[in-house]
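Subject: sequence -> structure tokens, single chain

Hey, anyone have a minute? Need the predicted structure for the following. Not urgent.
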Amino acid sequence: MEYGTFIDTFPAAARPYLYLTRIDKPIGTWLLYWPCTWGIGMAAFSTGMPIGDMTALMALFGTGAVVMRGAGCTINDMWDVDFDKKVERTKTRPIASGLITRPKALAFLGLQLSAGLAVLLQLNPYTILFCFGSMPLVVIYPFMKRITYWPQLVLGLAYNWGALAGWSAVAGGIDWTVALPLYTAGVSWTLVYDTVYGHQDKRDDIAAGVKSTSLLFGDHTKAVLSGFSASTIGFLCLSGYMNGNGLPFYLTVAGAGTAHLIWQLKRVDINSPPVCWRIFKSNAWFGAIILGAILADLAYDRLSAADASDGSDASDGRPK
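Reply:
Had a minute. Here:
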């Protein structure tokens, strides 16, 4: 089978497994990765972690995001095989189409989780144990769409775990006064982008009996998501306040971050799947904007501290 992406350049036997991981659609990896970088960056600001160490840690979390996003897709498709067969957009997925059997998918999942564990073991003991706490959320998420109109909330709790894990990877523990508002902001953000995403499949979801916030909010989606967007920005600012962040952080979050969310809500057409997909993908830029806010403030803080130190040396008559 050919997929019309770079996956087609790989051997035929490998293609269904690569397609299963959605590696040709990296937006899911970005959405999992950005909260990790937020937590790492905020903790680096707080603890004074060297830039090189922070960068290395972000790279490690990036590797983990690629692996675990793929594992999440495998778990999701194993749960949803019967639903996927009924939805136009998902009926060609490898498990739903029969290209990969459930036993083979389970074996592949074992390899993915082993790779994820190899990445996880590079972190401190507290973070290793803490990250295991996200697994129940990952496993139950696909089931939630069967019993509640709020599966996006469970997805948000799982997908933003990295904001907490990123902080603990830097600090060896979690400052909840900073990390919890950051996590809450991420969950609110997930409710925004995944509700937009869900509007692509709402007709098929109704027929299949699948629940979502997209169906729950219906024609009131833009109004409700305006509230979650405001919550996202508000909790990001609260996290920055508790962390002692400065003006570059607030200007970027409240300025560029707010502008991007407003743009999304103005542009989205919840009755047009292609527009919903385009707006959904644009959230990779929102995640980057928030990381940019954290890094800009970190750079400003470090440069200000260096200038203050140079000034102190000069006033003491010591050579610089």
